[in-house]
Design goal:
Elements (H helix, E strand, L loop, with lengths): L4 E2 L4 E3 L4 E4 L1 E2 L1 E5 L7 E5 L2 E7 L6 E6 L8 E5 L2 E7 L2 E7 L7 E4 L4 E5 L2 E5 L4 E4 L7 E7 L2 E6 L4 E5 L11 E3 L7 E7 L2 E6 L3 E6 L7 E9 L10 E5 L2 E7 L5 E5 L1 E4 L3 H7 L6 E7 L2 E7 L4 E5 L4 E4 L12 E5 L2 E5 L5 E6 L12 E8 L6 E2 L2 E6 L12 E7 L10 E4 L10 E4 L3 E2 L3 E8 L6 E7 L4
Antiparallel strand pairs: 1-35, 2-3, 4-35, 5-6, 6-43, 7-34, 8-9, 9-10, 10-11, 12-13, 13-14, 14-15, 16-17, 17-18, 18-19, 20-21, 21-22, 22-23, 24-25, 25-26, 26-27, 28-29, 29-30, 30-31, 32-33, 33-34, 35-42, 36-41, 37-40, 37-43, 38-39, 38-42
Length: 460
């Protein structure tokens, strides 16, 4: 009963002429009773939490973290709102601009950076902070209740003393180890990572009020950032880390030191990509980093080190391009749209859009003889479909020439509700020669879906 090897990551390369092995709108979970010890399940679905006026754009969503607060702030068009509940907002003030906003927080304020301006909100008043010399702000982070702001086209950063809404013109420092401009900044524990166009420098709190930040000697890395919105603070093994995209379109994960987590397929896709957004969430004991560009949404499963491609119906990208997690509630939005979603397990996206799950497999033929394909059997979570009279369908197609040509999809039923011993088996599938046969499986109907494995010729 040979197993058909299923994709361990969404992978393909035009350069190396490797056909795409799809792992789309699914992710891999541990399952000790499956054929290979893992199962493939559908990604979370998007449920509408709040709809905004038609034509409006969600420019940012944020929750003040680490303070025991669960206030969710949303920038819609040029307004900052506090999210009160489903379709309920309180307007807090004006945030000028049209770009994607950056956020940070201390125990005193929540900071928003938009179109070169810095805004501080103290729970009552939203203040547009005057920047020395009318400089433009590119990003913001916080460390030990200081806000630190980077300056556009510069290696300089200023800080706002705890509780203040003004900036002393002398309160600045430079990332001088390398002359590149600062792209973004983020804090992990007692460290502030200053990520430039080509280098990373790390600072910490010096304890000196006059000069509160000092560079850590020996902690300079040549892994800059291509776009500040590609950087997100995530968790790996329950410890904080940073993930971002470099100018060479590698994806780096930093937990102490940066290390490359992208593969050739991811980097090939990113070579032609721009306008990055990213965010992170945790569900089903997996931590995910979501990276969206103009062309695709790539999802890195931090827990097991695997890349997926997720998308919304009839789109190349997923409508959750920005988001945040507040305890068990995961809020997200399309930064080009007007809907706030929450992630759920409803098996179908908002507006009844199907989640099209696609998974590739391959079985090699290393001999000079043809291999007869008498039957392909799918091991699924039978019996949990929603209907007693109409079973959902799974589709399969194959290619014997490395993906150049494909047989049209065949369909099989997953059985009815309560039919726990049902079987989805495709029979009489001809034969194949070297190098082997590629399979693609597709499922898009409203039903619980878990694939535990696929076998060749286990029963005829």
């Amino acid at each position: 009963m040979p197993l058909i090897d299923l994709a361990k990551s969404d992978f393909g390369s035009l350069i190396q002429k490797v056909p795409r092995l799809k792992l789309s709108n699914m992710y891999i979970v541990e399952n000790p009773i499956s054929l290979s010890g893992v199962s493939y399940v559908s990604r979370p679905s998007l449920s509408v939490h709040s709809s905004i006026a038609s034509g409006s754009i969600v420019r940012g969503i944020y929750c003040q973290d680490g303070q025991g607060r669960t206030d969710v702030y949303i920038v819609i068009d040029t307004s900052l709102y506090l999210l009160n509940g489903v379709n309920s907002y309180t307007r807090l003030g004006t945030i000028d601009g049209t770009d994607l906003c950056s956020f940070a927080s201390t125990i005193y304020h929540t900071a928003v950076v938009s179109s070169g301006n810095l805004y501080l909100y103290d729970g009552t008043t939203l203040t547009n902070v005057t920047i020395p010399d009318s400089l433009k702000v590119s990003d913001v982070t916080s460390l030990d209740n200081y806000f630190i702001i980077s300056i556009v086209d510069s290696n300089k950063f200023y800080w706002v003393t705890p509780g203040s809404t003004t900036i002393d013109p002398l309160n600045f420092e430079s990332a001088e180890r390398s002359p590149d401009d600062i792209v973004t900044m983020a804090s992990i524990g007692d460290e502030m990572w200053v990520v430039g166009q080509s280098t990373v420098e790390i600072f910490t709190d010096s304890g000196d009020v006059a000069s509160p930040f000092t560079r850590i000697a020996g902690r300079v890395y040549t892994t800059g950032c291509v776009d500040k919105n590609s950087l997100t603070r995530c968790n790996k093994n329950s410890l904080p880390c940073l993930i971002w995209v470099t100018p060479t379109k590698e994806v780096m994960l930093a937990q102490g030191i940066p290390s490359r987590i992208s593969n050739e397929s991811v980097e090939e896709l990113l070579k032609l990509s721009s306008n990055f957004t990213s965010w992170t969430f945790r569900t089903n004991r997996h931590d995910f980093y979501v990276l969206t560009t103009d062309h695709e949404t790539l999802v890195f499963d931090i827990t097991i080190g695997t890349w997926y491609r997720w998308s919304s119906y009839l789109k190349e990208t997923w409508d959750a391009s920005i988001g945040l997690q507040v305890n068990d509630i995961i809020y997200c939005a399309n930064n080009k749209g007007n809907v706030i979603y929450s992630l759920s397990n409803e098996r179908v996206d908002a507006s009844s859009d199907y989640i099209v799950c696609e998974l590739s497999g391959f079985i090699p033929n290393t001999t000079n003889n043809s291999v007869v394909c008498q039957a392909v059997t799918l091991f699924l979570n039978y019996g949990y479909t929603p209907d007693y009279t109409d079973g959902p369908l799974i589709e399969m197609r194959w290619s014997d020439d490395s993906g150049a040509n494909w047989i049209p999809y065949y369909q099989k039923s997953l059985g009815l509700k309560g039919e726990y011993e049902a079987t989805s088996r495709f029979r009489s599938l001809g034969s194949f020669n070297r190098p082997g046969r590629y399979f693609e499986f597709r499922f898009s109907q409203i039903s619980s879906f878990r694939l535990d494995g696929v076998t060749l010729n286990d029963s005829v």
